Amino acid sequence: MSRNLDLTALRSFVAVADAGGVTKAAGFLHLTQSAVSMQLKRLEESMNVALLDRSARQIGLTASGEQLLSYARRMLSLNDEVYGKLTHTSYEGEFTLGVPHDIVYPGIPTVLQQFNKAYPRMKVQLVSSYTTRLRSLFAQGECDIILTTENSAGNGAEVLAERPLVWVGAPDGQAWKARPLRLAFEHNCIFRQGAQRALDNIDIPWEMAVESESSRTIEASVNADLAVHTVIEGMHGPRMVPIEHGGALPELESTKINLYVTEVDRGPVCEAMAQLLRGAFNAI
Questions:
Q1: Residue 126's pLDDT is what?
Q2: In CATH, 163-255 is 3.40.50.1240
C-alpha cells in the first residue's frame, strides 16, 4: 500500500533544519511552536524513524533526517513550481520587514510601492524599531528580512551601503549655535554616543535636551528648533534638514546599512523584496 508524505509537515521540517530550532522556525512559518512540534512528531511517526537529534542544546538532524532533508527540499520546490504554473494565481501570505526608523526615508516607501505592485495579495508588515531590537526579532524568526545600521557587518549580513552621519536641525534653525549644544535622541539610538564623543573631542559642551522612546517626539523637537540630531546622510525625514555649520560642529563617523535575509522557507517573494532593497540602498 502506498503512503503519502505530508508536505506541510515537510515544510516545517525543512524550516526547523534551516533555523536550527523549533521556536525560530515557528516564527518564520507564522505558526505556534506547539503546531510545528506536532507536525514534526507526526512526520516521524508516519515514517517510523527519528529525524531530529534532540539530545544536544541545539536541535540537529539524525542520519535519516539528513537524507530526508535533501528529498524534502526537492519535493517542496517541485510542489511550489507546479502550483505556480498551473494555478496562475498571485502569491498570498504575510511578509514582515524590519527597518530602523532613521532609514525609512527616502527609499522604503518606494520599495513597498513596487513590492505591492508585483505581489498585490501579499500583506507586508513593516516593523520600525532600533537595530538591536530588529536583530532580536530576526533571530526569533519574527522578521523575514531586516535592515540595520551598524558599525560592522554581523554574521550573515550583506552590506548595502556605508554613509557618513550628518547633523540635522529645523529649517532655518538656530539651535545648533547654542552652547551647551542641545541634543535630541532616542534612548536606544546607536548614533547617540558617537555624537557625544565627537563633541567631547573638540570641547563643545552639550546637554541632552530631549530623550524619548518615540522617533516622532525627536522629529517634532528638532523641527521646533529645540535641539539638533544626527542621521545618515541623505536619509533625514521630511521635517529635518542638514545643518550648514561650516565646521562649527564636528564631523561624524560613518555607519553601514546591512541586509539580513532569512534562510527559512526562502522563496521568490523573499528574494524579490531583497532585490528591491538592494536597488534602493545601493543607489544612495
A1: 96
A2: no
Q: Which CATH number fits domain 7-87: 1.20.1330.10, 3.30.559.10, 1.10.10.10, 2.30.180.10?
A: 1.10.10.10
Instruction: Give me the pLDDT at residue 284, please.
Output: 61
Cβ-proximal residues to 188 (8 Å cutoff; 6+ apart), any chain: 130, 132, 133, 213
Distance (Å, whole) CA 270 – CA 115: 10
- Alpha helix segments (H runs only) across 119-267: 131-139, 192-201, 215-223
What integer is the mean pLDDT of 112-134? 91
Rounded to 5°, angle at Cα 168 from 104 and 166: 80
Cα 121 to Cα 93: distance, rounded to the nearest angstrom = 7
- The pLDDT tens digits for 152-180 are 888 889 999 999 999 999 999 999 999 99
Average pLDDT over residues 229-255: 91
CB atoms within 10 A of CB 19: 24
Exposed / middle / buried, residue 115 (Cβ in 10 Å: 0-12, 13-18, 19+):
buried
According to DSSP, residue 228 is labeled B
The answer to whether 262 touches 30, Cβ cutoff 8 Å, is no
CA atoms within 13 A on the CB side of 149: 25
- Residues 235-239 have a mean pLDDT of 78
Tell me if the pTM is above 0.85: no
